[in-house]
Design goal:
By secondary structure, this protein is mostly helical. It is built from 15 helices and no strands. It has one domain. Bound molecules: dephospho coenzyme A and adenosine-5'-triphosphate. It is an enzyme of class 2 (transferase).
């Protein structure tokens, strides 16, 4: 593209893409995740398994630096002008995912979220702003300003689950979460992560507790697409009940988690959106990075 200033191939860009890959791998390997693909089973999915997720991640990562580069080279533009330029990259990523998975949607939500986050990181770096959680999420929110109103409010013939669920129930899904600057991640998941890491330092247990909190409060359109609003509320109530009884740290916490896994599988329910936000939480937990990390010392 002529006239576009691309960033130098800095270690920072490669570090961020590596952090994204690690976050996605940690998410799918975490076990037991109720209703989701993990090392114990394929959750409520007939068309997915662990190997497919790993192949999908391997297919996605080489495409992700483009989001950072576009965020960097468009740093002088108004944020709302950037999202339409990111969309083709996102759709190409989805095509790459579907090619790698034989047509199975493993990371649609993750591509959207991480494409925005990497573009935000590129924008902040070009603007010499600190790479920390708050400015990163604020930049994502600015990219997506008006997205729900623009893409969902006027829908007459819904083509996707997300569009249908907005029309029927006003659920905003991945778009709403991104436009809010990942509010659920910042207000629920990251505080839970920090609290658990301070309390026990056990990363696996902290991630399971984060997932439970996300399942308890996130309006996950994957659940609503599979089980209607009743299915979404069932999972939220079950997760809230488990947390109320002490969560994963309770003496019978893990046994209750396995039982919830079996219950969601029996009901064909999969909290895929919460799984995506779990990966976003793991990614953001690494920030501040770069100069901001040194400045934070
Ligand atoms: C914006 C997209 C992902 C919305 O897709 P869709 O209409 O199916 O919406 P929906 O929100 O139901 O689901 C998408 C995925 O998001 C995840 N998800 C569901 N609910 C939530 C939630 N509350 N919070 C976060 N993620 C969620 C699920 O894994 C789901 O598979 C899609 O339309 C799209 O534009 N994809 C191309 C990628 C792109 O635009 N990238 C450019 C920005 S980088
Ligand atoms: N470990 C995981 N297991 C299952 N789904 C996950 C996992 N991690 C993330 N997800 C998310 O959940 C989505 C898969 O859920 P689901 O299969 O309900 O979506 P779908 O493919 O759109 O629906 P359907 O399979 O009914 O056509 C993926 O797009 C992904 O965003």
């Amino acid at each position: 593209m002529s006239g576009i200033t691309l960033p130098p191939r800095t270690p920072l860009r490669e570090q961020l893409v590596q952090q994204m890959g690690e976050a996605l791998l940690q998410e799918v390997m975490l076990t037991p995740k109720p209703g989701l693909v993990d090392k114990r089973n394929n959750g409520a999915h007939r068309d997915m398994n662990l190997g497919l997720f790993v192949r999908s991640i391997e297919a996605l990562l080489p495409r992700m630096p483009r989001f950072y580069d576009l965020g960097f080279s468009t740093a002088a533009l108004a944020p709302v002008q950037v999202l339409p330029m990111l969309r083709p990259l996102g759709l190409a990523c989805e095509a790459g995912m579907l090619h790698a998975t034989g047509g199975v949607n493993t990371h649609k939500g993750a591509i959207f979220a991480f494409g925005l986050l990497l573009a935000a990181a590129g924008r902040l770096t070009a603007q010499q702003q600190p790479l920390a959680q708050q400015p990163l999420c604020e930049a994502v929110s600015q990219f997506c300003r008006g997205l729900v109103q623009r893409e969902l409010a006027g829908i007459t013939a819904p083509r996707t689950a997300g569009e249908r669920l907005y029309q029927q129930h006003g659920l905003t899904g991945a778009r709403g979460e991104a436009e809010s600057g990942f509010h659920t991640v910042r207000s629920v998941a990251l505080p839970t992560w920090r609290r658990m890491m301070t309390k026990t330092g056990d990363k696996a247990q902290a991630r399971l507790q984060v997932l439970l909190h996300l399942m308890a409060w996130n309006a996950d359109t994957n659940l609503a697409a599979r089980g209607g609003v009743a299915g979404l509320h069932y999972v939220q109530q079950q997760a809230q009940g488990l947390l109320w009884q002490g969560g994963v740290s309770a003496p019978d916490g893990m046994a209750r988690l396995y039982a919830l896994d079996d219950a969601l599988i029996a009901r064909h329910l999969s909290p895929g959106g919460s799984a995506d936000l779990l990966a976003v939480t793991a990614f953001l937990a690494e920030f501040p990075v770069g100069e901001a990390a040194w400045a934070a010392w």
